[in-house]
């Protein structure tokens, strides 16, 4: 799928350490892995890294800070990230639906089928993103390139619990995980 799906120019290594955010701007660094590929890859790898951060929090909890507020913030961020991306993507699609006719005939997307095409595309993109995010979670736990969120948990048994929860996407008794 990866090589056959050149949907966009993607970063190829998006994670929380490659995105610098201020109130006024967002900068993405380390573009050396950039390539044309499936859009769901960057979306999914970023979501996967946030999910890893979520599951690592229990390993950093102590009597003074149970990390519940931070976990809640991560879940909110995951949900807002996808919802904002979805909204902006569809807005841009609608804004440019007229096109210039070089790629497709404008009449195709000026019918009542546009919203159906958008819904299907975004649903497929979401599913692709979840698949790539899941692969990222597995690679970062089982593979050789780990994440500091988990590696910095000093207690090996706590770290193993967090890794197991991440691999199973469990420990969400309230059903708060937005994906």
TrEMBL record:
InterPro entries, sorted: Aminoglycoside_PTrfase, Kinase-like_dom_sf
Every Aminoglycoside phosphotransferase domain range: 7-55
Pfam family, one: APH
Protein's organism: Digitaria exilis
Keyword Kinase: yes
Molecular function as annotated in GO: ATP binding; kinase activity
Species lineage: Eukaryota, Viridiplantae, Streptophyta, Embryophyta, Tracheophyta
Gene3D superfamilies the record matches: 3.90.1200.10
Protein's name in the database: Aminoglycoside phosphotransferase domain-containing protein
Entry keyword Metal-binding: no
Record keywords, A-Z: ATP-binding, Kinase, Nucleotide-binding, Transferase
PANTHER family: METHYLTHIORIBOSE KINASE
């Amino acid at each position: 799928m990866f090589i056959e799906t050149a949907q966009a120019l993607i970063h190829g290594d998006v994670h929380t350490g490659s995105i610098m955010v201020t109130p006024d701007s967002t900068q993405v660094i380390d573009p050396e892995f950039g390539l044309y590929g499936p859009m769901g890859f960057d979306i999914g790898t970023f979501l996967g890294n946030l999910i890893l951060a979520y599951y690592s929090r229990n390993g950093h909890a102590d009597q003074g800070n149970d990390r519940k507020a931070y976990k809640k913030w991560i879940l909110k961020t995951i949900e807002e990230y996808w919802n904002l991306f979805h909204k902006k993507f569809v807005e841009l699609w609608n804004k440019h639906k007229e096109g210039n006719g070089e790629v497709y005939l404008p009449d195709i997307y000026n019918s009542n089928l546009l919203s159906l095409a958008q819904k299907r595309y975004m649903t497929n993109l979401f599913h692709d993103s979840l698949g790539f995010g899941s692969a990222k979670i597995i690679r970062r736990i089982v593979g050789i390139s780990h994440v500091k969120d988990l590696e910095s948990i000093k207690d090996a048994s706590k770290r193993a619990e967090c890794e197991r929860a991440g691999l199973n996407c469990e420990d969400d008794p309230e059903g708060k995980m937005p994906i």
